[in-house]
Amino acid sequence: MARRTGRGFGTAGPGEKLLRYGLMLVVLVLTVGPFVWQLSTSLKGLGEDIYTRTPNFVPADPTLANYGGVADTIPVWSYGRNSLVVAAIVVFGNAVGATLAGYALAKLRFRGRRLILGLFLATLVLPGEVTIISQYVTVRGLGLADTLLGVALPGAIGMLNVLLMRTAFMSIPADMDAAALIDGANVWQRLVHIGLPNVRGMLSVVVIFSFIGAWDDFLWPLIVLTDPENYTLTVGLQYLNGTFSANPRLIAAGTMIAFIPIVVVFAVLQRFFFKGVEEGAIKG
Amino acid sequence: MTHQRWFTPWLLVAPAAVWLAVFSLWPSLNTVVLAFTNAKPLGGGRFTGVENFARITDDAQLGDALLNSVIYMVVCVPLLTLLPLLLAVLVQRKLPGISFFRTAFYTPVIASAVVVALIWGWVLEERGLVNGLAQQLGVLSGPLPFLTDRWLLLLSAISLTVWKGLGYYMIIYLSALGNVSRELHEAAFVDGAGPVRRFFNVTVPGVRNTMALVSVLISVSALRVFSELYVLSDGTGGPGGQDMSVVMLIQMYSRGFTGHLGYASALSLLLFAVTIGPMLLLLRLNRKAA
Amino acid sequence: MRKGWLIPVAAAAAVLLLSGCGLGGDGGAGEDVDASGEVKGKVTFQTWALQPKFTDYVQGVIDAFEAAYPGTEVEWLDQPGDGYSDKVLSQAAGGSLPDVVNLPPDFVLPLVQQGMLLDIEGADDKLNADYVTGGIDAYRYTGHNGVYAYPWYLNTDVNYWNTELLAKYGLDPAKLPTTVDELIAQARTMKKESGGEVYLMSRKPELGDLANAGVPIMAEDGKSFVFNTPEAAAVLDKYRAAFAEGLMPRDVLTDKYAGNAELFNSGTVAWTTGGGNYITSLATDNPTLAPKVIPSPAMGTPPLYAQGLSVASGSKNLPTAMALARWVTNAENQAAFAHLVNIFPSTKASANDPFFAQSDGTPSGDAKVIAFTSLAQARMLQPVEVTGAMSDIVKQQISLAISGDASSQEALDAAVEQCDKLIGQ
């Protein structure tokens, strides 16, 4: 078969680049448009109508006053700190718990494995709408009502994350494990030296998913927390939507404030796991 | 063949298993018990036998809801198994500004339901963006009722699911793509395989496990669809409630103080039974392929 | 073996379901509760979505209470607007209801059924002397003796009209419609003049509209529904014809109550209904629209919206809780509240306050006066027995009737049948 001439594998030609950027721009408009609108609303002054027939994307008289307004109305910093505490517990729990369980379910043979796996899968299917009150009674029984730990606990090991980690460990070729086994490595050594380096990508996915889940949750923290001092950001932002007063500009600004940390976490983490993606984590 | 002691795997699984038992299995068992009562959120639970299940068989809305869920699944599974994979391949290559695009594509996943509702309302309503453009271009003579027609509303909700799902599953695929051997790609390239053939001969087999997982997740979440239909119909379930999904029905019956928890629990069990089917099927396919 | 695990599970579930029941026993039902002890010590006080706008007001009321009763301490919790029913539900299920808690009438019934709230009428002889009957009656429940909250602030609906749109499309803002038939006739004019660009009506009928037409919603005993009468069908038929004629946007089929306010705010619709404070909030949402809006009295019987302060029967400090609830709802404190925002006191002493009967000449001031005078006839149009699910089912069936997918009578029959099944549960 004739060898290709010209550019080699792995570098994109100008035509391909153009095509890729073109496609990406199309997807960009579809995915980011809503946020541009939200951002623009948060920058609109009191003199400008929000609900008009045709949405106006460019504020006539941009102002940062709404952001100041949010900070004046509610203690954004302490609510943000509470949200961070909850998110940190949830991320830690998932990173450790889901990794350990995922590894055991993917790579170790033991009695009851199929049963456990089946139970994990089954819980994915049960709608949580009916169970939220009984979860609250459980958390209260543990003495964790009105604490940030109580908010974090139920989500601290997500069953979906266990399954994601299991899938990642499954795709490590069996001969790599076998080789380590011959060298006499124990379970822990195999997990740390062969397992973990090869699932960094999925691990960052799990971290991101659990961070977002913890950060965005509204109903559950609202139920667990009573003292407004303990409120997380999503719950606290609801104060902007008071009984006789709802200013959509403030709400938009509040939403952007809650949104920014998620984008930051994602933007930071994506470096780690896309690096893995580009290098190809497993050498054939 | 192993050096492991019998309890080692259990030590690793233990934390997750405890969580499973306390926060999933226990409430689930509770749901099973509740399904045979006429419980309200505050007391009053009395054993009523199979009364709730008898009502299920004669709930006209449930028929609509099941049909909606099946349509949802049939449309979403192929779309969301393939499109995010293509998107992942598109952003896999390191190009200037790629981090920005990757992050941007993920933003719909993080959007709050309120924002999504506002925006999509404007895009799809009778005087919204889509109708306006289509009429200006002469594609349509009058506006289409995207949000107030039983079938169009379902279609709109599906588009919204796909919109949100693109970024979510793209990430799962991206991490899986990292595991596809670069050497295989290079070998195929040397053999003269074009991008399309490399996609089908190297990429797809390389992420087959992930595709199976993704399609399981999509079918389960399609059968359990809630927020998209809820948000686009403003919580009403479309004209006459014909666009309810099963989860929307459960939410309608279990909501708040006055919830009919018994019937909602019976509906949950039904949904569980319906969802477990496709899941077992896909798992079997997965095992055969592997 | 099977049974071996089923029984503990069932027992535990029963405990879960009944948790909270043991709290107050039967708190009401004429039984005399001794709430007359010394007013001293700590109580918790929960309000709904009053922070941050009314933080100063509420804190001021609390500080004055603590000063008036030395040795008392009030812990104030204000809960956000969204998710309040879930919040109160979890507090009730967990046995941690605050001592004094702000509740609308429909939240109170399930708590009363569990004996979790104190009968105020039984504990306070002066309740009927000091508070307006409408407010008190909002907290009476069929099958339960007594009154289960101090009525707090009240509100009702007022019609709001966009005068600019009316004038532009051939209608006279001085001759606003006062009946449904007039409304439909004017909607026809507006549709014709605007070429279908602007609507007058954008709301489908609800249970309240049926009640307004004289249709009984429930049977006398409160155990079954009876609103599937030919009169009710005739009301729906009017709207159905109006919808078919294109006098309402298609959105009415799927809109919740707030939908028509949104359309009004965006200038697509010329009529909406809202509380006495609507223009004030419109001034923030859409400042250019607010000056063009004028109010008029609601058509038919105005709806009553009540807020009240209930006292938990499980409270460890009943005397102080009672004193606080009474303090917050006393004439002086309520009047001060009503001067801050267009809401209305539930105390008889405020009924003669000239402040409420005199407009400052602005549309917002007119709305205040209209709402205040309407309150005299206002009543709760939807029975508290209607659960969330029932209310959804009724809306869906009415939507089917309006869209023409079912006849009005069929839709009403189906709604009544399903609601009867649910209430039997």
Characterise this structure:
- The complex is a heterotrimer of chains A (284), B (290) and C (425).
- Chain A has 284 residues and is mainly α.
- Chain A has 13 helices and no strands.
- The longest helix of chain A has 32 residues.
- Chain B has 290 residues and is mostly helical.
- Chain B has 13 helices and no strands.
- The N terminus of chain C is likely disordered.
- Chain C has a 5-stranded mixed sheet with strand order 2-1-3-8-4. Chain C has a 3-stranded antiparallel sheet with strand order 6-5-7.
- Chains in contact: A-B, A-C, B-C.
- The interface between A and C is large, with 35 and 39 residues.
Write a brief caption for the model.
Chain B is 72% helix and 0% strand.
Q: What is the overall shape of chain B?
A: globular
pLDDT averaged over residues of chain B? 83
Count the domains of chain A.
Answer: 2
Count of spatially separate domains of chain B = 1
Pair with the most extensive interface? A-B, 100 and 95 residues
Major sheet characteristics of chain A: none
- What's the SSE pattern of chain B? HHHHHHHHHHHHH
Q: How many strands, which pairing sense, and closed or not: the largest β-sheet of chain B?
A: none
The helix-and-strand class of chain B reads: mainly alpha
**What's the overall geometry of chain A?**
flat
The CATH homologous superfamily of chain B corresponds to MetI-like
Distance between the termini of chain B: 22 Å
Poorly predicted regions of chain A? 1-7, 277-284
Order of helices and strands of chain A: HHHHHHHHHHHHH
- Rg of chain A is 24 Å
Oligomer type = heterotrimer
CATH topology of chain B: MetI-like fold
DSSP strand (E) fraction of chain B?
under 5%
Can you count the beta strands of chain B?
0
The CATH architecture of the largest domain in chain A comes to Orthogonal Bundle
- Level of helix content of chain A? 55-70%
Protein name (chain A): Multiple sugar transport system permease protein
Domain ABC transmembrane type-1 (chain A): 80-269
Main location (chain A): membrane
Membrane topology (chain A): Multi-pass membrane protein
